[in-house]
Write a structure and sequence with these properties.
By secondary structure, the protein is mainly α. Helix content is 70%, strand content 0%. Its main location: membrane.
Length: 237
Amino acid sequence: MHKQHKYRQAFLAAFPQTIPILTGFAFLGFAYGFLMSSNGYGPVWSFLMSSVAFCGSMQFVAVTLLTSPFAPLQAFYIALMVNARHLFYGLSMLEKYKGIGKIKPFLIYVLCDETFSIVNSKEAPDGVDRGAFFFFISFLDYFYWVAASTLGGLLGNAVSFNTKGLDFVLTALFIVIFLEQWLEGKNHFSAVTGILCSIISLLFFGTKNFIIPAMLLILSVLTLYRKFYKGEPASCT
């Protein structure tokens, strides 16, 4: 009963944090399932891609790769460019997941942009198990995406509508999360750094190649800031 209470308490604390993700993933997951279905890949493929690959934007790109001539090197390069940001996510989560226990491999496996934005900025409430809290945030976000994309695949053959522009939901979701964390945080140095470094990299490297340079620049600036800042480290907002 004690374990059941611990997990129930952690679930109730984690679920409200994931509601914005649920809203965004519902639309995007449906869109992805429809897209897979319209290209001849049934709901089983949507389920497998979402549950095994679980890489959001890269899954949309993968639809094009699946329907194009086989080009493994091109596919590898595109996947690296689209998902390279996760290398930096992993580095920034070393302290956060330290001593988390046996669930650590799962937390690493399902770490996506949206989960990172929540876990990196939130701590378990008083009396709530830290590991269970992070687990439910990660699991719920993962479940939302897999369930929505599978359902989209199931309904793809039965329902037809124009999904053009629906992927803007992802951008809107990030804006909402960013604004929420900005309002909650007191130190906005890292947020301003992220915006400025991204703009600088975009101007120098263009829209197709700016992600990795921006991440490296952000990492360098925040590392120097952490080294010389004498107070508490900057929050993610």
